[in-house]
User: Fold these one by one.
Assistant:
Number 1:
Amino acid sequence: MNLERRKMLGSTLGVAVAGLLGGTSIAHAAPEDVAARIKELAGEAEVKSGAITLNSPEIAENGNSVPISVSVESPMTDDDYVESVVILAEGNPLPSVATFNFSPASGEAVASTRMRLAKTQNVVAIAKMSNGAVFSDTREVKVTIGGCGG
Amino acid sequence: MINRRDFLQFAAISAATTGFSAGLTKAAAQQSLTQDDLLTFDSKGTLTLLHITDIHAQLMPVYFRPPSENYGVGAFEGIPPHLVGEDFLSHFNLKRGSALAYAHTMVDYVDLARTYGRLGGLDRTATLVNAIRADRGDNNVLLLDGGDTWQGSYTALKTNAADMVECMALLKPDAMVGHWEFTLGSDRVMEIIDNMSYPFLASNIVDTEWEEPVFESTAFYERGGTRVAVIGQAMPYTPIANPRWMFPDWSFGIRAEIMQENVNKARADGADVVVLLSHNGFDVDQKLATVIDGIDVILTGHTHDAVPEALRIGNTLVMSSGSHGKYLGRIDLEVSNGKITDYASTLIPVFSDVIEPDKTMAAKIAEVRAPHEEELQRVIGKTEGLLYRRGNFNGTWDDLICQGMMQERDAELSFSPGFRWGSTNLPGQDITIDDLYNQTAMSYPSVYRLEFSGQRIKEILEDVCDNLFNPDPFFQQGGDMVRVGGMGYTCSPKQVMGSRISNMTLLSTGEPIDPMRNYVVAGWASVNEDVEGPAIYDLMETYIQSEDTINIPRNDAVKIAGMD
């Protein structure tokens, strides 16, 4: 979360896809759809936790623009680097939010973006490593209709 | 694990000499309790932390009835601060009818209120603070203000908090944090801070554009022969619980990872003691204490919980110093070789009748109230019963407000937010403008009149209920359940979101709420911009004047399930 401006600008350029809300008639993605998408990304590899950290607010201040950031531990050498990170939203009409592609020249696998969340849901980040290993991290983001705190 | 000796000592003094309240005259009770008793403390080490929080602009002593319901869920069920009444008394070994029983619970509340009188008053607090500073030495004491200081009274509203800013300047806190402060709008907040002689800290506020810190996160002090870092934390859900449009460029959140970084930085900068001055709420801070390494003391606020001593959670002490100026929290720390080796803590109830007011502060309070004194004293009605706000589901002040909104806006139902601020009126007391604004003084007071479907009403209730009863405290926003006029329902706090609210019934007909039908609803404190309608304090002034004598019937409209 505590990204410096320079890093954030750099990483934002890496956004390849930003599938946000379509028409309201589109049904929301189900967790199974996201699970199928993860399987497709991982292929034969086992999806493990660790290595990747997804940061998001616990409760969105504004569901139309939810800041998230992701970082993956990796030496980022020619032999061992992060190839890509995919962000998926289980409850959005189109679950694919963003794909960040990296190379050893990226230096570090850190990225951030903002996404629209239609409702309270899990957001999943998947990292694909150059050696074929796959890691994931999941965070629930709550989208409220209004608070009465005090 | 917890050293209760000091606290029991004080409890024994007040219990032994006052006994059960019945038959005691006010004079007898007050003779037995003295300013010196309140200041009696078996001090430790050389460093003292003083904590005052959630004053809600109460410069004068108040009656404030503690809640009869304060349910905890998950890991937090049945432990402090989720203890009320007899359970609270037995957990903390307090004698029924004692001064501390009155300060902390609603047991025998009205009788004891007449015996022990009002609590608080910033001039009384100043006396206690000055006495402790004199005793321990100025260079050994840190006074920390946990926020919600600049909102909650007629004079704070009319002066844009200038009254509180001037009075607090005399108390000389070493730092503060915020929540309702932000409802003055970002420009006014910055204007005040620019002229303040102590820092306004917030580790968890960043600008929405670049996510860079807006405020200082940490302040360092050399006190008690040791280096102390104080990290500040604003109410994490301010932009959700309050109108985001009033501070559109600031983003909040718990931001535990930034907190850990700031703790690590403080240690790297040589801090022997790291204090978190927090407006997270008690359960959020109970969890935070377990997920952040290296915080010695959390001074917590927001949820208005008054716990008689600091609780130890792992290696962290958590102190929660109540609200409305009723208490002054104190923790003494013995620090050797950069580590805390002993401590003692207490929450001092500010019994206003036995504490000599500090003259300088009393004069300043009189000065800031003087231009408004006639209006503050203006009587608009009288109450036959007890008027109070605190409670998870309702309180008689909000019952009155819900009645008023339905009547004055010709609505079938009404919503009043689950705020925890607002003083108490005893049976037979007049209701003044001062009293009314203690319940309603805020910067987005319009009373809307809208149609909601039965389905939408259920969604709103479920949403607010999850803010209160989500078993993960990081999803709790603080505050209580929205109060509903004209409708009954059953609440099952331990269920999941979407399944907590059932049996919604329109009280006027006894019929179930129809999910498909629209209902006319009046409510106040909407977080949306450009809400149309009269201000709640104007509407309620009209309503109370027309009723003249207020008598709130017993309210059993909300049933609780699954909490026995």
Note: The longest helix of chain B spans residues 454-469.
Number 2:
Amino acid sequence: MAPPPQGFRLPKPIRRLQRQAPIYALQTLSGLSTRLRDITGREVLDMNRIMEVVQFVYQQRELARRGANYAVDDFGFDAQWTESFITVFKSLYRDYWRVETVGVEHVPPTGRALLVANHAGVLPWDGTMIKTAVYTEHSHPRHVRALVASQFMGMPVMSWFLRRTGQAVGHPDDTRRLLERDELVLVFPEGTRGTGKSFRDRYRLRRFGRGGFVATAIRARAPIIPVSVVGSEEIYPMVGDLRPVARLLGLPYFPVTPFWPWLGPLGMIPLPSKWRIQFHAPIDVSDLSFKDADDQHQVMALADEVRDTIQRGIYDNLKLRRGVFL
Amino acid sequence: MTPKRVLVTGVSNPLGAEVARRLSPQVPYLFGCDIADPISALEGMDFVHADTRLSVIGKLIRQLKIDTLVHLAVLIDSPHDSRSVHETNVIGTMNVLVGCAAPSSAVRRLVVKSSQAVYGAGPNDPSFFSEDMVNFDKVASGLTRDLLEMEQLVSEYTLRNESCDPTVLRLGLRVSEGTSLARYLSLPIVPTFAGFDPRLQLMHEDDAVEAIVRATMGHHPGVFNVAGDGVVLLSQAIGVMGGSPAPILPPYGRWLARLALRMFAGIDLPAHLADIMAFGSVMDCSRLESSFAWKPSYSSRQAMDALAVGKQIELIEAPSPPQEYELQVYLQQRRRRERHLSPSGAARHLPINGEEFQKN
């Protein structure tokens, strides 16, 4: 950091106060929190949460100090930077959508695996929540590398944010390369057909492409882990699709929800639905050969098996949920 | 086959000059041709003023009995207009290939310079380009289209001639003094496309020279990506150069941004570079590594650091090109005279020299 200009300096007590201010503020808050707990008998101000916010702010300051001295991997993934954002996603995960995750132990602690999930909700929040689930709930925190539709890579802000947090393009070559580096790869075979479906069709899986993900998994000898996500359908109940506007802006769809585009940016706030994520038992493909990867019948059979597992998981978890927002 | 009679086209650009300098102790006969005067005097090289855009280049190749041709007269990063770039890259390469394909030609090895720009850059591209990902049917424009056309010509030539397997080197973006990328990154405030921070793969000039020399001296037929290890984000590259990025260029309608850059910053960012500044372009160089058993010594980050260090070093005034050229002519004349005079030099007498070639 640049030294302050020599000519003008604040008096010493004020400078000391400046330095100590965050500590005084935290002390006051913790005192207030204890008082409120004594008065009301329950946790009103949770000091752990407040400390997380403080930690986040300090982390960001540290990251800004790195300058150009940091390394990204060949895909443009900056692990340190991504981990600093986990705090934000964790509070969404825990407090906003109250995600309940089961079967996270099916994700291997090391080595490659292909996670296959259903895709819903206009914006890909389900991807972030699966990533957060594996990073925070797993005994060996791992970064999941999701594959995104190439349209997002052409969008400003989106493109660098997605790349920097570890995503790659939904191209068979990218899937292969990531799996060969023993990464956890997340794919949404439904693609934009899943995110852009109307609210009426919620929890009905779309077509699973041509099963390309199965062929890639067989070639890379990576187990396939089906993932069912419940709750993502209700975050933006899409009641209409303005095709001409979408075509004009080069988007796959232009959603109309009860709040978007009527309320402007406020309409982009997702609804606080109750989420459940289930990781299913891995499907082993290591006994299949390269020849099976070219066998369309074999590939489609496996893709259907994965699709059925996810669909069944969705119905099971819908039953376990007491209500959309509960 | 070890190269005996080597012709380097485009020897007057810095890359060609450096390749010739490295080749001259290794090969018995070295010739260089270009339309511009050479930028450095080389004792062991015979320089010929010849334009690859004219079919006379074919005659030169045959009559000098060239067995190894290093085709570097391919404009990648030049201030010329698109028309002359097309002429040089496509028509020039065609003339060279016609010269190589003639029945009387002795060419057994051909090294062609190409560029990373052949892949183009767009949001739909995979994260890494491997050599077979070039789509010749792609709707491309500018340099990308010219390079696609050029490489197509080379691959057709490969199919028709079994006696000669060309090596095509797709060189990565080079950051050395004077390239338009280096000038762009050296701005104190660098205007970038709003909301984009692409991955860049860079390469040091020394590695480009080394790759071309290795391709000339060894036998490595095929197409190869050549670039440094790893990637550097655009914002990182700007940070290394000590500037600060200003995300003010509109990401849509990139020609408008290029126009603004030319008008306000005086920097001509070519169309293919503008695409890379938005979407990035990274090549997979594993084929180079396995076939050449060598890989570039500078990683992308090191190439960037080298440029930043070079920026701080004060440039020493080099002798101006005309003086250099006069020196070159003098040396060449002296060599010729020596060859005519000495009896041992007679064996080394060239079948054709500059004057006779002009007569033909």
Note: Confidence is low (pLDDT under 50) at residues 345-360 of chain B.
